Amino acid sequence: MLSVLKTKFGKAAVAAAAVLIIAGITGSAFYFGYQVGTGNPKKILAEDLTGTNFGIFWEAWELLKKEHLKGAEAKNQDLVYGAIRGLVNSLNDPHTVFFPPDDSKKFEEDVNGSFGGIGAEIGTRNNQLVIIAPLKNTPAEKAGLKAGDKILAIGEKSTEGLDVNEAVKKIRGTAGTEIVLTIFRENWNAPKDIKLTRAVIEVPTIESKIIEPGIAGAESGQDGILAVKNKKIAHISLFAFNQNAPLAFYKEAIRALLGGADGLILDLRNNPGGFLEVATNLAGWFLDRGEVIVTEKFRSGEEIVFRANGNGALKNLPTVILVNKGSASASEILAGALRVKRGIKIVGTQTFGKGTVQELKSLSDGSRIKLTIANWVLPDGTVIDEKGLKPDFEVEIKEETEKKDAKPADPQLEKAVEILLDELVQ
Of 126, 109, 114, which is closest to residue 160 (Cα–Cα)? Predict the structure, then answer.
C-alpha cells in the first residue's frame, strides 16, 4: 500500500492501495514526499484554461443548488470537495486520491498508529475492489481471505463505483465489532458473505520456520534452519517493509550465517510493501555496494537512482525468493532487483503489480492529494506497474490442498527447497 512519507524514516514505498488504514500499518511501495502545504493555493490564470468552457461547472452548480431535492441544504464546501474528488477521479488512476481535511487527519493516524480493522491491504484491479494481501495473524487471514479476492459488497452496500479510500472508511471500525464482506474468488461458483470481527491490528515483521526433510512447513527447534540432505537452508518470511524490518532481518541473517546456513529462502508472499528505504537496506545484504536497485522515472524525464548501500554479507549465499498475488510494491522491487542483479530465482505466482510513485501534497485548508508522479523501473528496464513479476517457476497452491490437513502442504516452499538443493549440489 504505499507511497513515500518524509517522516523520520524518509521515503517510503507502499503497497498498492496506500491505505493500510484497514491493516493499521503503513502499507505498501509508493513514494510519499511528505510536504506540508502552507500559504495560498496556486492561482490559475485564464490563459491556462484556453479552450475550456469552465462556465459549465457553474451551470451545474446552480442547477444542483436550485433544483435538486436536497440542494438547499447542501453545503457549498462539500460541493467544492466533491468537485475536486471528481477532478482527481477523471484521471482514472486508483492511486491518486483526494483527502478532505477530516479524511486527511484519519489518513495520518492510519500511517502512524493502530486501530480497529480486519488486517488486509486493499486496492483496485479493473475498477473492482480487491484484496491485495491479508496480513499475518489478522481477522482477514483467519477468515480465509486471499490475495485477489474481489470485494463485491461491504455490509449490504455494493462496492460498485466505490474508491479505496471510501471502502477503507466503511471497513475500519471499533475493535470487537463485526463487518460482513461479500467476496468472490475466481474458482467459486457464486459470491460468499464472510463475517469478520474487527481487531487492533498488530502485524508481525518477520518469522523463521523450520521443516523436516521432505515435509515442508513442519517445525523443529532450530531457529529457522532446515536440515535437508546434510544441508542447512534458512527460511525467512518477511511480512512488511516497516521500520522494524531492517533490525529484524539483521538478526535473522546473522543467525543464519552463524548457524552455518548453506542457502536461504526469502519468503515475500502476502507482503504488500512498506518503506522504500527498507527494500534498499535489505538489498544491500545481497548486492555489492553501489549496484542499482530501482530507478524512479518522472514525466519530465528526470530520474532518481537508488543503489545498494550495505555489507553484501549474503551475496554469495544461494537464495530463492517466494512470491504470490499478495506480493506488491517494495516486495516486487526487492525481488525484481535481486533477480536482475544476481540471477536469484523467483517461485510462486505472478505478483500484484504496484509500481508507481506517489507524493502527498497538502492544500491550504488541510486537504491533501496523494498524487502519482513517477514509475518505479527495475535495473533491466522492467516497469512493474500493472504487470507485476512473473516467477521463474510458477507454482500454484490449490484451495483443496490448503484444506487437506491441519498443516497443509506448501508446494511453493517445496519447490524452493528443491531448487536450492540443486544449486548446492552443483
Answer: 126
pLDDT score of 7 = 35
Q: What is the architecture of the domain spanning 206-353+377-425?
A: Alpha-Beta Complex (3.90)
Q: How far apart are CA 81 and CA 174, in angstroms?
A: 27
Transcribe 40-51 into DSSP letters: PPPPPPGGGGTT
Conformational region of residue 270, where left means phi above 0, alpha means psi within -120 to 50, and beta covers everything else: left
Element (H, E) at 270: none
Domain boundaries, the chain: 206-353+377-425
The CA distance from 420 to 390, in Å, is 19
Closest CA to 23 of 116, 130, 128, 159: 116
Query: Please, which residues have CB within 8 angstroms of residue 17's CB and are 6 or more apart in sequence?
Result: 1, 27, 28, 94, 121, 122, 123, 124, 132, 164, 168, 272
Q: Using one digit for the tens of pLDDT, what is the confidence trace for 12-42? A: 444 333 333 333 333 333 333 333 333 344 5
pLDDT digit string, tens, across residues 252-269: 999 999 888 989 999 999
Helix, strand, coil abundance in the chain, percent, nearest 5: 25, 25, 45
Alpha-carbon distance 282 to 286, whole Å?
7
Which residues lie closer than 8 Å to 336 by C-beta, 6 or more apart?
Answer: 294, 378, 382, 384, 389
- Who's near 175: CB < 8 A, 6+ residues apart? 115, 116, 198, 199, 200
What digits encode the pLDDT tens for the residues 290-324? Answer: 999 999 999 999 999 999 998 999 999 999 999 99
Listed in sequence order, the residues at least 6 apart from 242 whose beta carbon sits closer than 8 Å to its beta carbon are: 25, 26, 203, 205, 274, 275, 278
Flag whether pLDDT at 202 surpasses 70. Answer: yes
Nine cell digits for residue 258: 552463524
CB 236 within 8 A of CB 208: yes
Q: Could you give the 3-state DSSP secondary structure of residue 419? A: helix
Contact 285, 230 (CB under 8 A): no
User: Mean pLDDT throughout 129-138?
Assistant: 91
Check: CB of residue 245 under 8 Å from CB of residue 238.
Answer: yes
Query: What is d(CA 373, CA 154) in angstroms, rounded to the nearest whole number?
Result: 31
